[in-house]
């Protein structure tokens, strides 16, 4: 009986050691994920501000004027290129408001529901 219990404990110890080894590699991945999230946290304010400006002001305009607003008004102001902006706001390099407002899966669902796949239609779907 004592030998059987010792074998059982040894098996449990082996399983526990394998689990600890597997979780050790997960710890490194989690640390990297936390570092990445901390880096993007500082950029979140600018990204959300751009998405809010997009939803608030761009909805009623056509594609050409939307691009002009984004490239000549919103982005220069948020990046601090306009003197009145007071230095700008930190934001992601690939600052696309659609990335804040929707996901690729949501866009695919809209396309399956017969929303056209062009950029303006997707923007309108995100705004609604």
Question: What can you see in these coordinates?
Answer:
By secondary structure, the protein is mainly α. The protein is built from six helices and no strands. The protein has helices at 2-41, 44-57, 63-79, 97-101, 104-112, 119-127. It is elongated and about 80 Å long. It starts with a helix and ends with a helix.
Number of strands: 0
Low-confidence stretches: none
**Assembly annotation:** single chain
Per DSSP, the total helix count is 6
**Helix-strand pattern:** HHHHHH
How much helix, percentage-wise, in residues? over 70%
Q: Span between N and C termini? A: 70 Å
- Silhouette: elongated
Mean pLDDT: 89
How much strand content do the residues show? under 5%
Rg is 25 Å
**Overall SS class:** mainly alpha
Biggest sheet: strands, sense, closure? none
